[in-house]
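Record type: ASSEMBLY
Status: queued
Input:
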Amino acid sequence: MSLLKRVAIAATVSLSLAWAPALAETHVTAAIGIDVTSTDPHKISGGGEYLFFSNVFEGLYGHNLDGSLAPQLATSYTVSDDGLVYTFKLREGVTFHNGEAFGADDVRYSWQRSNKPEIKNPRASIVTKKISDVVVVDPLTVEIHLPKPNASMIENLGEFFMIVPKDYIEKVGDDYFSKHPVGTGPYKFVSRSINENIELAAFKEHWGRVPGVDTLTLRIVPDPQTRIAMLQTGEADIILNVPPHQAKEVGADPDIDVVVNPSFQNYFININMLPEGSPFRDQRVRQALNYAVDKDTLIKRVMFGFATQSTAPCNRGVIGCDIDRKPYPYDPEKAKALLKEAGFDFSKTYKTFGLAPGRAPQSKEVAEATMFYLQQVGIKTSLEFLEYGAWLARLRSKDPEFALFWQNWTDYNADPMGRLPRGITKGGTYSWSDLPEADAMIATADSITDPDKRRDHLRKLFTMLYDNPPWIILWTTDEVHAKRSNIDWQPRANVSWPVFWKLSKH
Amino acid sequence: MLTYIVRRLGQTVVTALFVTVIVFSLARLTGDPTILIVPTEATEQDIQFFRQQLGLDRPLYEQYWSFLSNTLQGDMGVSFRYRVPALDLVLDRLPATLELAFVSMLLATLIALPIGVLAAVRRGSYIDTGTRWFATVGQSTPTFWLGLMLILVFSVDLRLFPTSGRGTWLHLVLPAITLGWYSSAAIARLTRSSMLEVMESDFVKFERLSGLPERVIVLRHALRNASIPIITYMALQFGVLLSGAVVTERVFAWPGIGQTVVAAISMRDYPVIQAAVMVTAILFLLLNLLVDLLYSWLDPRIRY
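Status: finished
Output:
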């Protein structure tokens, strides 16, 4: 090609580029209630953080939009017979947001960093501290070695073992990385202003989940009324956590859709079984409490329909929660009969506590209504409300003064073993139960590596916890979000925080 | 004059020291922060480890002493939650709060002064009745209700102003009205009563007799004499605006100190609470100092 020709072609190309209509950038704003505290995946301290991390980082395995377990940075894995060595084949051609190639070295490095004492990772004990070694076999194969079988590890890799770029962090240092995070997820981090906003941009080179928008702003707007107004004016395209009692009114606008997403947030009234001689140690009394409360009416009237009644004390969708029983029916007569049979002391007033409004939807109303139902069968209670910090302190204190209290917990994914040892096993951080048979079954659940056998084991456990209930079993809540009707968005079911992978605007 | 300035400066420093004690104690009255920082999975050992890390296991007087000596060096510790220096976090938020307080004050004054003066001059007229009505209603309107009403009317229905956030001057209008509403009512009431007092005085009567035009009497002479209590009150109100912005900032998602403090209190983030209250208190003290010095310069009799 002659020089002249080349110049001519170059000129036409540059001209045509200049005249081509610029493609409009699609931008989406989502208004959220609370800010994330950290942008470092090894410094996650609460459920709310996943709103950021699930969009920017990935693990070897994670969860699809329907909540099912799915490969992310790995493509497959095998387990040794003794359940101690997991071999992962890694996904080829994956890059981090800064262009660095992802490989086995990054997996090993992420494990080491997650456990580094100076990182002070609040959640290292869940997965990474239970790993004895991560061996790089070749650039696309790693072996994870365990000191003892841990069948729940696979389910938890996405939330508790996120992969970070080794070369980048070694170059810029931990502190810089904390403020300028780089991952492999569908969105790149752009900037952040604490308590104001977080700016993200779509990662166009993602291996399989390129979002349908170019940029995404998460704006922190604490007041739900203001979030609703933002959606009505179009300043926000998506808002999270609409108060349940306003969902109907918000959805009446033809340009707004309410998005209801099944969550993993479990509501219940915990029963103190710890004090010696407590009437609540009697199985019949705890069954009676479950007959005494009209869950159907509460879901309709107090939760405005945004909840699913539970059968066993677990979130529907959790492994083994699908037991062959019906939820406890509302039967106050049966409750009274059982209480009488157990010789329950009706003369005493039992102390109870609840959580002040603002943190969990309708927490105050649920506690009040439950106590009303208990009164109907002759149980006298006194009720006080605590703000979140004080409530949490009392929850951990296991104060023998208190008989019952409102509680909730959220499973991070379909594996119940993240919560059971802490919430049910006697002596667990926030367990007020004392059920030795159940404790024994919880203790052995994670050594069963065969998924089907483990599911059966958990089903048996939950059936036992239905017959001998540790709590007044209530329901799993639904999250209520809302969006403009020109937005296509699917949050993620059964994981407590929505993701923005599948998002477009037209 | 010089001794007065030195004395007032000394008083300010002593007050600031006193404030550190109060701030330190108040933060600790909110309860133990560790259980809110560590995840629910944390064991007792984890909690102990975090307490040590944060220095919360040391005796209170030791904690206070290190807080004070670090504060004097401009180091107010690291936020428990965000893991960034607390003072940076607060100073980063200060301009937004100052901007909002300043504009609210300006707006309140521009509205309140003319109607206060008019009400006094036309005593008993419908303007006067209207002003008194505005003063009563304005001072008893709950901030969050007013803010939400303004959003519903001017953002959602009329689409004139954005609902929330900070950016253009348009973003400022609704929060500034919300925040300045109470002050405006209060200043209008005060202006009216000070003006009435002055209008009844002998020198105004004398000026009327000597045939000066009413406009000159009101604006040149009466207002000047009535302005001292008004200025005092405005300085105090500005301090109230700095701290009173909490509710307004929450409603309008205005990224100022108020919002940051509320989040910090609910999460027991001691360093951030301490830094925010210290910064606000010192601003308030400096403002008072400035007003006092201004007075003593204006009117040498005012030295106490």
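Annotation: Chain B has a mean pLDDT of 86.
Annotation: Residues 214-251 of chain B form the longest helix (38 residues).
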